[in-house]
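Take one protein record:
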Amino acid sequence: MELFDLSGKVAVVTGSSRGIGRAIAERLAEHGANVVISSRKAGPCEEVAAALNARRLGSAVAVAANISLKEDLQRLVDEAARAFGRIDVLVCNAASNPYAGPMEGISDEQFRKVLDNNILSTHWLIQMAAPQMRRRRDGAIVIISSIGGLRGDPQLGAYCISKAADIQLARNLALEFGPDNVRVNCIAPGLVKTDFARVLWEGEAGEARTDKTPLRRLGEPDDIAGAAVFLASRAGAWTTGQTIVVDGGETC
C-alpha cells in the first residue's frame, strides 16, 4: 500500500463535481490525499466536498472556478494554498466540446472555445501551480486527454485536435520540469459512461462501440481513477511525459 499512499498530499482536481473528475477526487481522498473539488458551479462542488468530509473530516474543500477565466484559475490555486498550504497533485480534467460535426461546419467561436478551454486553460493552471512544486522538487501533474487525441474523428475533430495538443503539452512540460522532479503525464480514456459523453454511449451508438471494444464494455469513471492514483503516487515516481491509454482495448 505504501506505493499508492497519498497521505498528507494535496490534490486539485478540476471538473470534479461529477463523472471522471469526481471519481478521481474520491479515489485520491481514499488513498489519503486532501482534495480541492472544483467545477463551474459552487453547489455541486460543495456536495462532493461534504460527502468526502463525512468520510474523513477536513479532507476536502470546494472552490468553484470557470476554467475559461484566468482569474478564476488563479483564485483556485490561491484558495487551495490557503486551505492546505500547497499543491502536490494537479489533475486537469475539465474540458469543453460545444460542437459535433465535420470541421468545415465549426464556427470560429466554437473552435476557439474548444482550444481555449481544453488547451490554454490547462496551460494557465499548470503555469500557476507548477512553480511551488518545482521549488519543493516534488509534484505530479495529470492531464486528462482522450483516445481522440490519437486518431481522427469525423464528428469530433476540434475536440480531438485539442486532446492531441494536451498529449504534446505533457511531453514538453515533462522535459522542462523533470530536472525538478515534477512529473507530467496524460491519461487518454476511451468512451466512458459520463453525462459529458452521453450522446456517444446511449442507444445503438453505445452498443456499436461496445462491440468494437475487446473487453466488451464501455468505461466507468472509476476505470480512469485508478490510473490517476498511480500517476499521483510513488507508484508512478519514474513515469513522466507519457500517455496512458485506458480504453478497454479499443485502440488495439
